[in-house]
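Before surveying the methods themselves, let us examine one representative protein, pairing a chain with its fold in token form.
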Amino acid sequence: MYEYYLTNALQNLLIAKDGINLYEMSGSKSIKGIVAYHVQQTFELILKYLIYNHSAHSGKEIITHNLELLINKYCMPYGIKVPKVVMDHAAQYTSWEADSRYGEKFTVRIDTLVSAIKEAELWIVAVKPGYKRNIAWSNERISAMYNHTPAYHKRKKKKE
């Protein structure tokens, strides 16, 4: 039940991963905002999937993007396990939902995004192990695309 939340979480995660690749190729800082938004959506949708599927939940729709609220009001009382990294960074990830799209001065480090994506990958695979295959396919596709771009070969020559 509520499988579409987890399916949408996976799609947002894959878009975020593609966005990292696009940022690496283009260097366009605005892409980091798009990636941040999709990472936040990934976490939000995983949380909502877990909450809606918990027997204690009433089934009433939860209308919020606030990850801290979802964790404190629903996950903790229901005994739903949330990765420590997600709990520790919930306020930051929550801010990405709007700030990344509407904040003119929004900024985020690429390594912060990459770490958040890795955490999202681990969590979504823990929730649904079958998604490991989708993520592996995405990684292979991104690697193949990345390795065949002129930007990749230019960077490779500089390293040699």
User: Anything to note?
Assistant: Residues 3-26 form the longest helix (24 residues).
